[in-house]
TrEMBL record:
InterPro entries in the record: ABC2_TM, ABC2_TM_bact-type, ABC_2_transport, Nod_factor_ABC_transporter
Originating organism: Streptomyces hygroscopicus
One of the Pfam families matching this protein, by short name: ABC2_membrane
Boundaries of every ABC transmembrane type-2 domain copy: 27-261
Major localization listed first in the record, in broad terms: membrane
Name of the protein: Transport permease protein
Positions of transmembrane segments: 64-89, 110-137, 149-173, 185-207, 236-258
Family from the record: Belongs to the ABC-2 integral membrane protein family.
Alphabetical UniProt keywords: Antibiotic resistance, Cell membrane, Membrane, Transmembrane, Transmembrane helix, Transport
Membrane topology: Multi-pass membrane protein
Subcellular location: Cell membrane; Membrane
Amino acid sequence: MSSLSLAVRDASTMLRRNLLHARRYPSMTLNLLLTPIVLLLLFVYVFGDVMSAGIGHGGADRSAYIAYLVPGILLMTIGATPAGTAVSVSMDMAEGIIARFRTMAIHRGSVLIGHVVGSVLQSILSVVLVGAVAVAVGFRSTDATVLEWLAAFGLLVLFAVALTWIAVGMGLVSPNAEAASNNALPLIILPLISSAFVPVDAMPGWFQPIAEYQPFTPAIETLRGLLLGSEIGDNGWIAIVWCLGLTVLGYFWSASLFKRDPK
């Protein structure tokens, strides 16, 4: 077999291993999935009328706020799932299984690739489940074309890949699972201080740069434009640059950490 075939075979084996772990220990996945669902229900049914009235500068329109809210919740779901990957990678390093893999005739990169592909698949599945809940509470995307739906799906996948590689690096640099969970906390907090819940223009002037110059806001605005048919402007290419930059950074960071000999 060629080296590429061996790498694909080993990566597939590691992917199955990670998916089996996720199936046998679903508590972390469920906890990370419940967070965006709870926030979606909270902001729709508790704050929906007030938030929509504030954003619309007039009468309350809960359906309009649902349309505004859902793209941000979907990106928040993408941000929450890799936090579990950071914990999983850290546990592998701490429990010694990685040291065992180093002694075996397998492709070294397959271990990380298995984690990344498994996390991306979980992220997309989580987005589908959260999207189903969003449709149930009233979200509709009637103005999006098939091409825009495909572009939205591609953006979600690209964003999931970028954040997962960053999460893998966080897991490798963490001495234990608790530290990995704390290190991955920004992936959960950043969507909360983005344009997911209110427009950046509605925030205090001193806070607007914090919300604007981060990866989630342009990605949310791009997804919102694709699903609702609104203007995207420069957010599209800014979101792609963020995704590609984070992917490259996370990949080389993770690879350099993984290649170090264990102490």
